[in-house]
């Protein structure tokens, strides 16, 4: 579930950046992407918090951007 959230966040981020470059950062669609990303980050934080309360260690994650592709490790 966590990995799926990370992938969604990165996809939305890429779309937001592209839209922002084309239409400006104050365009309503860019702001909507930002809101969606914030909501997904909140979900990710809740998952991480639940795991830490349960005594499970958080799975460390990293992502790498390479020519408009995101790679999670």
UniProtKB/TrEMBL annotation:
Q: Name one GO biological process term.
A: regulation of sporulation
- SUPFAM superfamilies found in the cross-reference section: BAS1536-like (SSF140500)
> GO: which molecular function terms?
protein dimerization activity
Supply the name of the protein. Answer: Aspartyl-phosphate phosphatase Spo0E family protein
